[in-house]
């Protein structure tokens, strides 16, 4: 957290184009093989043009905003998001972190994910404490 | 139908995550920090072994038998997700986990009535709470269902 102050933006996590490979890697890591994420026809039956990324993948990318700060003494103590709208194959995703507060080894971060249309796809807050 | 399950709990189960599972999950979320891949790097940062990425405990749901979801055939929408940590979770530790359906409530919207299912997954290590995982799932109520 050194060098950061209230109001700063963290370097964003940018996925220029979500691919089937992104989704299949998350499915392998998480064990969530729900067809809506992996199968075009299942996604279309559910009303989506293309398979949708796991919401938890988008949330997990937010964790990367702070992973370089973490140690056994510096933890993410809370991380909460709302899922607003799904992102799907072919979309872009940018996960941004805005420092709401920084104080003696702790930081509160507003996390927001947006797609290529600047629509908010996830939003929430994270607290890191040292 | 779901209201009767309010405050229902699963059995407690032991959950142990291996190094390979941490590495696979970390790869899936495009994590590059070596604390999730290399136990020596993790130890240099003070961890006993590889720590679990912050959101990984949501995957523990797959280990539970969840009676209140067994007869749900409609798609579930993931509305909200949260994590609270007292301690980081570490691979090769055996945690005791229990999933609780804390609340069931309905809200009406333009697309019909939605049923909200609020859950907490409690994770203990040696009788001490280390983490809680909060998950809100949403179901659309069927026409005519009570």
UniProtKB/TrEMBL annotation, chain A:
It comes from the Bacteria. Pfam families: MaoC_dehydratas (PF01575). SUPFAM superfamilies: Thioesterase/thiol ester dehydrase-isomerase. Residues 18-116 form the MaoC-like domain. InterPro entries: HotDog_dom_sf (IPR029069), MaoC-like_dom (IPR002539). This is MaoC family dehydratase. The lineage of its organism: Bacteria, Bacillati, Bacillota, Bacilli, Bacillales.
